[in-house]
Amino acid sequence: MGAVKSKRMPRAVRERQMMDAAVQTFGQRGYRATSMDEIAELAGVSKPLVYLYLNSKEDLFSACIRREAKALVEAVRAGVDPELPADGQLWSGLRAFFTHTAENPDGWAVLHRQARSHGEPFVGEVMVMRDEIVAFVTGLIGAAAREAHRDPALADRDVAGLAQALVGAAESLAGWANDTPDVSAKEAAATLMNFAWAGLENLMHARPWQPPADAS
Questions:
Q1: For residues 148 and 205, what is the distance between their CA atoms, to the nearest angstrom?
Q2: Which residues of 127-159 are buried (b: 16+ CB within 10 A; e: fewer)?
Q3: Which class for 90: exposed (0-12), middle (13-18), buried (19 or more C-beta within 10 A)?
Q4: Which is nearest to 40 in space by CA: 30, 27, 54?
Q5: Alpha helix stretches (DSSP H) within 30-155
Q6: Which of the residue ranges 54-58, 165-169, 172-176, 210-214 would you say has the lowest mean pLDDT?
Q7: Quick one: pLDDT at residue 213?
């Protein structure tokens, strides 16, 4: 009797296996220090197969950025319940963000540290993701303002600025939380919620902080 032939692994499964290995290696070792040999060894494939499926190291890194960015955006969107009040929506979005970054530390390292430190085209790939999250948060804050006022109380520029500040704070806090032992996603989300919500609530109820009269 002849030997039974093993089934060939589907391309999509093999490619995901290589991408997983690439994200892990890029996230832990950095873009420049990572070699295609290391990725191939971790994935359990030959280096020529990595090049065949995913082209160059630059193309592979860009593909990793796009995959991890898509997963993060989808996690945040899925985590927000539009039926909740404004604070509940923001809280659920922050929890989804910090849960995803905590559960995928290598992917977050690729997005937050590696991609941003190696110039184009990697920075551009990350900014597409960031712009999408900022737009989503802008919508949440704008909806909260409309909920608090019959007429929108916050100018579009104010809402956009608040969204940029909130996303920037979340990015920094996620990096800190992943590097600090025993900080849970819930704790990180609560920290940012406590920092941001009081100010947002005051703004939405027309109680903004004002600089002293003698300030320039």
A1: 6
A2: eebbebbbebbbebbbebbeebeeeeebeeeeb
A3: buried
A4: 54
A5: 36-43, 47-54, 57-79, 86-103, 105-109, 122-148
A6: 210-214
A7: 72
Q: For tokens 């993701």, name the residue.
A: 129
**Cβ proximity of 70 and 59 under 8 Å:** no
Question: In this structure, what token pair is assigned to residue 58?
Answer: 């630059």
CB-CB neighbours of 125 under 10 Å: 19
Instruction: Answer yes or no: are the C-beta atoms of 134 and 167 closer than 8 Å.
Output: yes
Task: Indicate the residue type of 75.
Answer: A
pLDDT per position as a tens digit, 185-215: 999 999 999 888 777 777 666 676 677 876 5
Extract the tokens encoding 122. Answer: 């990697």
Contact 15, 53 (CB under 8 A): yes
pLDDT in tens, 16-69: 999 999 999 999 999 999 999 999 999 999 999 999 988 899 999 999 999 999
pLDDT value, residue 215:
54
Query: In angstroms, rounded to a whole number, what is the distance separating the alpha carbons of residues 188 and 178?
Result: 10
Instruction: Give the span between the Cα atoms of 55 and 51, in whole angstroms.
Output: 4
Question: What single-letter DSSP state applies at residue 143?
Answer: H
Q: Is the pLDDT of residue 6 over 50?
A: no
H-helix or E-strand spanning residue 15: helix 11-29
CA distance 146 to 89: 14
